[in-house]
Amino acid sequence: MSRILPVTLITGSLGAGKTTLLNRMVAGAPDLRTAIIENEFGDISVDDRFVIFTNEELVQAQTSSNLQTMRGDFVRGLLRLAQVAERFDRVIIECSGLADPAPIAQTFFTDDELRGTFRLESIVAVLDASQGTAGWKDSDVTVRQAAFADVILLNKTDLAAGADVDGLENHVRRTNRLARVYRTRHSNVHLGELVLSAGFSLTRAQELDPHFLQPEYPFRWAGVYPVGPEGAELWIEEGTLKETAVVVVPVRSTHGGTLADAKEAAALAFSDRGAPLTKDGGTIFPGASLHRLELTGRLNRFKIHTLTRGLHGIFLAHGPQHLRTTVHIDGIPAMPRWERTFHPRHSLPNAIESVGLRLAGTVDADRVRQWLQSLHDEMGDDLLRSKGVLTVQGTGQRLLVNGVKSVIEEYLDLAWKPTDVNANFIVLIGRNLDRTALMSGFRSCIAHEAVLEAQSA
Q1: Residue 30 burial by CB count (10 A; 0-12/13-18/19+): exposed, middle or buried?
Q2: Are 286 and 306 in contact (CB under 8 A)?
Q3: What's the pTM?
Q4: Which of 20, 234, 348, 380 is least surrounded by CB atoms within 10 angstroms?
Q5: What is the pLDDT of residues 293-340, one digit of tens each?
């Protein structure tokens, strides 16, 4: 029997010190071979550049700005890791500060293949004590992060008044009476305390969320149809949406086990953000591949190409409340043998989004400071987080920028390697983000006209 890898899940609020804790856990146990998974929010990875490690392996499980694709991304990363599990002694997962830990934790109990390789040992939540109870009241996600945790760090106590920390701890203990709670600075906690906790309790997780063991999927509707070799057509009538997505998977029957396999295959396919756009009149091919469908006319028709007769599951990104969809077989609207509407249980609060920016060249540090400060002055509480890795003119070291609301920290880090390309990455998280204006401001920080590449997420 293969060895089961213990998993520690680090969760917590934006900018609370999760990556600092991750670095401490890795440095404090140099003899353990650690696999690190970064489960980020956004399409540009920055957190992996904040992780300092020696012989550890980094597996990125990035999410798009739609958290509903997260599960497929995350499972893909774990499956990659499972193939080389014998090379490691443990796994540490750092979650985005916007992530509800429930759907991540649930993966270790609902996926048979992963359950045979990994064991969720504990969830550690890092909360920003410098925000006092304000951050707690403003975010349901933060409350759920604390509720599911086995260990909770009230971090940055050096930046908070004692009364504010007391108030936050009272909220935390009322929410989760079983967790071990520690007050910390710079996420400095005795690492033994993290493993001496009672461990993750499936029973308590189900008490918090009765649907904990029910997987959450990135699609909103699915139906199973008998399709012959002549194929079928998917009709989508005009609505407010300009694009949707579909996966068509052959299925053997409409029984539970077969459908469960089809749903898992579709969920993985939905994590393919690089899928090409299929225009009206285009063809959808069955298999574990995503098709993005462009919706332009009053009626959009797409050919479903099949070679053999059999049942096919059609999984759509949007349900009937958003799109009027019918499947036509032999030119006649067909009724599904089985159908179901799926409802998301977890979503981003208050339309929070992420914008990732990347530029080549070197930047002027003073211009960066002025730009970020002006953003905070203009946007106020709408700008929640800024985090970047920059190439600064006149130094061979990386400049790390770490901002939480109006508090912005920066420090010089490791030297760039000779093989590294001069590049600047910054991720901004908040509400009402204007990507074009943000890229323009970022470009104004370039010291030289050496912009070789510009990308935004």
Answers
A1: exposed
A2: yes
A3: 0.61
A4: 380
A5: 999 878 999 999 998 889 999 999 988 778 889 999 988 999 999 999
